[in-house]
Amino acid sequence: MDRIRKLDKYQKTFLLALTVITVVYTVIYAVTIPRVGYLYHETVFVPEVADGTTVYSADYHGRKCRFTVSDDTVVFEKDSLKYGPYYFREDPTAIPNGSGFAEIMKGLEVRYNDKVIFRGGAVKVSDGQYWVYNEDGTVPVSSSPLDEQDEVIVDEHGKVIDENTLFVCGITDLMLGPELRHKGSWTAWLGCLAYCAAVAAIVIFADEIFRWNLSFMIKNHEKAQPSDWEITWRHLAWALFTIMAVYLFNLGLKL
Fold it and tell me: How many domains in the chain?
């Protein structure tokens, strides 16, 4: 503690910043990791099951969103806006001919009202989500209702449409059973904590590190004093290390 009291104001400031960053992100990790659900557009939709219906809900950029999934339908709601219902059924005859994934594909058809808006196959990939292909083997053009910012969706002719809210991959994931996941990793948090501890050591033992480096170049290094230029570089390096800590904590939340 006596060493800490003898630190200058810049060292104490950087140590305080590292402490605050660590505490804040520890709380964020503790809140984020237990939230397990359907990961869609980097947002975790937490499921609740009631009366044979599963509702996946989340706040997305300040807007309350939810997917309501029953036996064969998906409905998406964003605040007061409603998309769907989209009707889903499995159909083995919809699997693309000649596809290299044909043996592990599931054929499916998605309808909006009476219109077929997708017909093709879906194959599960390593991250638990599905890749979808049209019946002719091409990749469908799919958008997400999360991307839409306007309450009225129009085509190039100004006609109001709902079909452009199609999110085939999302519907497929939800109807075939999404793999529940969470954001963040305690392993990543531990790595960030170790990084912050290392930076704190660099700040606290700055003079010792400076003289240890000089010991390979000059005699009587223990009497050397850092120049103003050396101190300026220290402060710049510490600032960079602190910014890097924030970046690493944020990166860990995406794992």
Answer: 2
Nearest residue to 212 via CA among 201, 224, 200, 204: 224
Nearest alpha carbon to residue 84 among 53, 52, 43, 113:
113
Query: What pLDDT does 24 receive?
Result: 97
Is the pLDDT at 46 greater than 80? The verdict is yes
> Which of 157, 176, 195 represents a domain boundary (last residue)?
176
Task: Tell me the whole-structure pTM to 2 decimals.
Answer: 0.73
| Token pair listed for 15 | 């140590």
CB 189 within 8 A of CB 253: no
Which residue, chain included where needed, has tokens 């699997």? 95
Q: Which residue range(s) make up the domain with 120?
A: 38-176
Beta strands in 125-211 (DSSP E): 130-134
pLDDT at 198 over 60: yes
For residues 14 and 114, membership in a common domain is answered with no
At 52, the pLDDT band (50, 70, 90 cuts) reads: confident
In terms of domains, do 169 and 205 share one? no
Tell me which of 153, 176, 199 is where a domain ends: 176
For residue 252, what pLDDT is reported? 93
